[in-house]
Amino acid sequence: MSGVSDFVVVANRLPVDRTDTGWGTSPGGLVAALAPVLRARSGSWVGWPGEAGARIEPFTSEGIDLHPVYLDECDFQNFYEGMANSTLWPLYHDLIVAPRYDNLWWEAYRDVNERFAHATAAAAARNAVVWVQDYQLQLVPGILRRLRPDLTVGFFLHIPFPSPDLFRQLPWRNEVMEGFAGADLVGFQRAEDERNYRALVGDAGPRTGAFPISIDPAAIPRGGQGDVEKLRASLGNPVTMMLGVDRLDYTKGILHRLLAVENLLEKGLLSDVAVVQLAIPSRERIDQYKQTRREVEEAVGRINGRFGRVGSPVVHYLHRAVPKRDLGALYTAADVMLVTPFKDGMNLVAKEYVSCHPDGDGALVLSEFAGAAAELRDAYLCNPFDVSSIEQAIIDAVAGDPARMRAMHRWVAQHDVARWAACFLDEL
Ligand code: ADQ
Question: How many CA atoms lie within 13 A of 86 on its CB side?
Answer without folding.
Answer: 23
